[in-house]
Design a protein that fits this description.
Blueprint (H helix, E strand, L loop, with lengths): L1 E2 L1 E2 L7 E6 L5 E5 L5 E2 L19 E3 L2 E2 L6 E2 L15 E2 L1
Antiparallel strand pairs: 1-9, 2-3, 3-4, 3-8, 4-5, 6-7
Amino acid sequence: MLWLKECPHDDQGLVCPLVTSTGDVVLFCDSGGEAWLDPAEVSEASAMFPRQPDWRVTDDVSVTPGTTRWADARDLPDAWRAFTWHDF
């Protein structure tokens, strides 16, 4: 599993890329469930909190449990490849 950095919201989880059911890749804290759309903007202040019932991150993107998977290096958007990713 790839990860970008420790979660800025709870300092316990890791911010990891996640592939959604629509094929979009978002960043998701593996501990607290916070989400981000851009690796350059991962901060406590910019965290989104997708929750039941729709688990929505944006209008067309959700992280409903059972419909996502952790991304691997091939799934990363080209613009994200410039960031330093760690392998768990």
